[in-house]
Specification:
Shape: elongated
Low-confidence stretches: none
Strand content: under 5%
Mean pLDDT: 89
Distance between the termini: 54 Å
Number of helices: 7
Radius of gyration: 24 Å
Order of helices and strands: HHHHHHH
């Protein structure tokens, strides 16, 4: 068995992690705070991995990020995930023109947009974007 990697936390850091664990915005962030707290108790990476249901390597990776960057290292960095096909700020006018030109045949508007934009997407994606636009302009979705 290898050496147990532990982390020493000051009272302020422990309180900050407990606060993040209790009231962090995302589940992933709360899980990472919990992970660091468990490691500070002297548990092995395997024990922590079983508790939070992740791989032991993941435990060590998050611990390394916490030691290097602090609480900011436990947050999910921007730019993750698939990028949207349409961005309202950029594509709104182009989509409106195509839909107005082919209002009876949305599939034709889709083909026109694909040619203009140089990227492929499904008819369902276009409908979803139009529905979001409609909800935003009609005041729906505002809380």
């Amino acid at each position: 068995m290898g050496k147990i990697r532990t982390i020493e936390l000051s009272a302020a850091h422990r309180q900050e992690l407990e606060q993040g664990y209790r009231s962090g915005k995302s589940h992933a962030f709360r899980l990472r705070c919990h992970l660091v707290l468990l490691k500070s108790e002297g548990r092995t990476s395997e024990q922590v991995a079983q508790i939070v249901k992740v791989n032991p390597v993941t435990v060590n990776n998050w611990l390394t990020r916490y030691q290097a960057e602090g609480m900011a290292g436990l947050k999910t960095k921007p730019g993750r995930g698939r990028k949207p096909v349409f961005e309202p700020a950029r594509d709104l006018e182009q989509v409106r023109k195509a839909v107005v030109a082919e209002r009876q045949r949305l599939s034709q508007a889709k083909l026109l947009l694909e040619q203009q934009m140089g990227k492929g997407f499904s008819l369902r994606t276009l409908k979803r974007f139009l529905k979001k636009l409609s909800a935003a302009t009609n005041g729906y979705g505002k809380e």
